[in-house]
Every structure is written in structure tokens, then in C-alpha cells.
Amino acid sequence: MRRHPHPLAAGCRTLLAAALLLASAALTGAAAQGSAAAEPDTRPAGTTATASATHPTRTTATPGTHPVPGESAGTTTASAPDPAAPHRGRVTGARTPDRSPARDRAVRAFAEGRRAAAREGGPDRSRRPARPDADLTHDWWGVFPQPGTHDGITATHTVDPAYHVRDSENFTYAPTTKAQNSCMEVVTAYWQSGPELWAWDWCGAGGPAKTLPIDAAFLAKYTPGGTAPAAYSVQLVREGGSGNTWGAYLYNHRTASWELLYRQSGKDQSGLDHGWDMFEIYASVNPATGVGWYCTEARNTVFDSSAVKLRRDGAWNPASPADSPWTDPAPNGRDFLCPALRFLRAGANDHWTVRQ
């Protein structure tokens, strides 16, 4: 990681005193955010408890680089909970979606994009598959945990309830995450019917098995107050028992616990042998602007995934260059129908931001 040291000049007592005061304040704040007392809980098999509970993380990024202290471009703040916090209760409000022509279009585009990626050997942008529709551009960017590196993934994803999609053929799935061989993908889905969270079933009938609207009730439970932009934390883990059984969880900040969103077992039918945590679009050009519809509609939206961690041998560790390579070190916004789009590698493969 590239760093820029800022040594104190000899004799600058005022600066030294200010630094000491800031350090003291930081320690005081950290103490005030200590974890709650431990209590009995049930965790997915293989999960190892850690000492911390919820800790806020601030990261700073510049396009195509690791974070550089002191630079403000791309800064985001989000609270990342302990992956080994208690697992109890279920996500209320999640439902099995009704069929509709609009949802069928969304499902068809999503599924065809994954099938095309599998035919090409994986979602490597240098081998981008054919578009699922002649009028749609399908593109993606993020990190891809490799086979054999994990049996669980967790991340903190931003949401923007103010981002509304006008065109029925356009979909932004960002962030979206899946573990290797997991039975579900958890998707932040922006489409004409409004922003939702999807638990896409990859071991059963396919399509969104559970949907959850990103509304005031969602924000109150699953995003901590005071952060901007709002962000929720998701976890996918392989659980004990027979077969390939997986659970998808959301972290409830009110109860300080992971709640079950969806559980499924069987064989992963995605056709891809790795996981992902990425920004993804299905977009067409707005003839009035000459860029993708979403480029204007999401001008003020920050798509951010932070605290990406993989579970291996019961331990959670940040995604790294060794196990989670980037799809492209320097993508171009023009390939995404949005020249102003910036792709920020905000961490060593455990944090990314896409914004204008």
C-alpha cells in the first residue's frame, strides 16, 4: 500500500499538542463504541467468534489505486459488524415475490447475463459475453473470490432509496454478492418497480426467492443511523448438515444480531466456480442524453462495498489480491455507457466504490 508520511517538523510544539489531542479523542471514541456484553447464541457451523462487535470504518480512495491518507475523493463511511455476532431471528418483511411482466423481464435479463458469463468461462471483463439483448449493455466490475478460498462471504453495501429507474428494460444490480458454490446471491436491485434486496436462488427454481423493499423500515433496522450513504451488511455462509446448505443473513443494528433472510441447499446452478462482489448494469442509452439512463438517474448515488471478508477454516479475513482479484484494474466509464463514472479501488481488494 502506498503511503505518504507526514513527519512533524522539529520544534512544532503546537502541531504535536494537536496530534496528541486528536489521538486522545480517537481513543475515547473507540472506547465508547465497545461491543455489548456477550450472550449465548447460535452461529453457523465453522464460525469463530472475534473480540469486536460493530466498528465504524472510514476509507479514502483514488481511481485505480489503493487508499492514500489525506485524499478526499471517494471517501465513504460505514459500520461493519462482527461476522461472528449472534445469528438469531428472521428478516421480517421479506416475501416470495409475485409474478409480473416487469419482474419477469428483470429476472430474464439477470439470468441470461449469468448464463452468458458462464459460457465464456467466467465474468472476466476482457472476455465480456455477448449482450443479453441487442439494445442492452451488460457490464460489471468488482472482486471475484477464487475457488477453494472460502466457504462464506460478508460485506457492507450502500443503498440509495432516492435512485429511481425510469426505463423498464434497465437494471442496476449494485452491489451484488455471491460466495463460491453458494445457493444464493444477495442483490441490491434498482429497477422500475423500486429499489429492493433480492435473495436470488441458485440451487432451486431460480429467480428471486425472497425480496425486501429498501424503504424506511429496512433503513431503520439494517442501516445504522448517522452514516452517509446508508449501508447494510450481508453475510452468506455454508452451514452444517448434509448437502450444500447455505444461509444468507442481514445484520440488524437494533438487535445487534444477524437475521436469516434465506436458506437453501442443493447444487449451485450458476455455472461459475467462483464468488463475486461487484457493480453490475444492464443499461440502454437515453436518446435525449446520449448516455445510459442510469448515468443521469444515479448521478448522486454512491455504489460502495466495504469490509469484504472471506471465511476459511472458521476464520474471517479481508479479501486480498491473493484470493479475490479485480475484474479489471482500470475500467472505462464509456464501456458502462457513463463516461463520468469512476471506479475506485478503495482497499486491497476488500473495498470498492463506483460513483460519478
Write the layout of secondary structure elements.
Layout: H1 13-32, E1 54-59, E2 76-81, E3 87-90, H2 101-119, E4 137-143, E5 152-158, E6 171-178, E7 184-190, E8 196-201, E9 208-213, H3 216-222, E10 231-238, E11 245-252, E12 257-265, E13 276-283, E14 285-286, E15 291-292, H4 293-297, E16 303-312, E17 315-318, E18 342-345, E19 352-355
Parallel strand pairs: 3-12
Antiparallel strand pairs: 1-2, 4-13, 5-10, 5-16, 6-7, 6-13, 7-8, 8-9, 10-11, 11-12, 14-15, 16-17, 16-19, 18-19
Determine Rg (CA atoms, Å). Answer: 20 Å
Average pLDDT confidence is 80
Taking the alpha carbons of the first and last residues, their distance comes to 24 Å
- Helix and strand succession? HEEEHEEEEEEHEEEEEEHEEEE
Characterize the largest beta sheet: strand count, sense, and whether it forms a barrel. 9 strands, mixed
Query: Which secondary-structure class do the elements indicate?
Result: alpha+beta
Assign an overall shape.
Answer: globular
Uncertain regions spanning at least 5 consecutive residues? 1-43, 46-73, 129-133
Strand content: 25-35%
How many strand elements? 19
Helix percent band: 10-25%
Can you count the helices? 4
Describe this structure in words.
This protein has 356 residues and is an alpha+beta fold. The protein is 14% helix and 33% strand. It is built from four helices and 19 strands. The chain has helices at residues 13-32, 101-119, 216-222, 293-297, and strands at residues 54-59, 76-81, 87-90, 137-143, 152-158, 171-178, 184-190, 196-201, 208-213, 231-238, 245-252, 257-265, 276-283, 285-286, 291-292, 303-312, 315-318, 342-345, 352-355. Strands 3, 5, 10, 11, 12, 16, 17, 18 and 19 form a nine-stranded mixed β-sheet that branches. Strands 4-13-6-7-8-9 form a six-stranded antiparallel β-sheet, covered by helices on one side. A two-stranded antiparallel ribbon has the order 1-2. The longest helix has 20 residues, at 13-32. The chain is globular, with a radius of gyration of 20 Å. Mean pLDDT is 80; it is low at 1-43, 46-73 and 129-133.
